[in-house]
Design goal:
71% of the residues lie in helices and 1% in strands. It contains 10 helices and 2 strands; from the N terminus they run E-H-H-H-E-H-H-H-H-H-H-H. The chain has a two-stranded antiparallel sheet. Helix 9 packs antiparallel against helix 10.
Length: 270
């Protein structure tokens, strides 16, 4: 779900798993693969290096695309991160990208994960992300017929620009609302409120999804508020929250971008 585009008028990583040494982590993955190839795949592809490789094409398309197309629009979550960074001595349109790269580096170092990527598993990870995006697309397609959900508002920018912005939406909205907000809420509900993991995840996901949905109506480029579109986006927020908690940042971000692209292609060829 991409937030209303924000004009460039101004100048989570997810919580890391328990730290393991690289050999110990590799041994753990190998044991899981021997017990079950599917469980081994799920375990290995949650490593930071796979998330980084998975979102890399969307990252490049978004940042190179906004430069080449010389657009005055960027994704709303990207713009918000830039505003939050204003007090710091980081004055560049790529500040959000630097934050993302820095968080991935920290996550990789903290987990002491291997830098090795198995190409077949990365290919399966792309297929998994596309399948999850397609599932959400089909769910909303069914709901639009049986519940008359409001169609998402079309932006004033061109079609190619919209597709470029969709790539950024998956990355930076997931970083902001799942990596930072959901991750922080999950930690707060567990450590401060004392909830167990599952209830904490449920409450954190509900709050983060509501904030995610409301975000799309903020600012001059925000969409007009309707209850149905709010519920629509909150459901999407819950969907991506489940992906973030169960499959990690990379899958949530890639599925988000791919879903937005699917919706954008429908509008282009409709």
């Amino acid at each position: 779900m991409s937030q209303g585009r924000t004009r460039m008028s101004t100048s989570e990583a997810p919580a890391a798993p328990h730290a393991l040494t690289a050999p110990a982590a590799q041994d753990s993955i190998k044991r899981a693969e021997m017990a079950s190839p599917f469980r081994g795949y799920l375990k290995e592809t949650r490593r930071p290096i796979y998330s980084a490789a998975l979102i890399l094409p969307f990252f490049v398309v978004y940042h190179v695309g906004t430069l080449v197309l010389n657009t005055t629009y960027i994704n709303g979550a990207d713009a918000l991160i830039l505003r939050l960074l204003r007090p710091l001595p980081v004055h560049t349109m790529f500040a959000s990208a630097l934050v993302l790269v820095g968080l991935f580096a920290f996550w990789q170092v903290r987990t002491r994960g291997s830098w090795t990527i198995h190409t077949p598993k990365l290919a399966l990870l792309y297929l998994e992300s596309f399948a999850l995006a397609g599932l959400l697309f089909l769910i909303f397609g069914w709901l639009s017929v049986h519940w008359s959900l409001a169609s998402p508002a079309r932006g004033s920018q061109g079609r190619l620009v919209s597709l470029v912005l969709f790539c950024g939406a998956g990355i930076y909205e997931e970083l902001l609302f799942r990596g930072v907000l959901l991750g922080g809420l999950l930690l707060g509900f567990e450590k401060l409120v004392g909830l167990r993991r599952v209830p904490a995840a449920v409450w954190a996901s509900l709050v983060a999804a509501a904030v995610f949905s409301l975000f799309h109506y903020i600012g001059p480029a925000g969409d007009p508020f309707t209850l149905r579109s709010f519920v629509d986006r909150m459901f999407a927020g819950l969907y991506f929250s489940v992906l973030f908690v169960t499959r990690g940042f990379g899958v949530a971000a890639a599925a988000h971008s791919l879903y937005d692209i699917l919706v954008g292609l429908v509008f282009i060829f409709a």
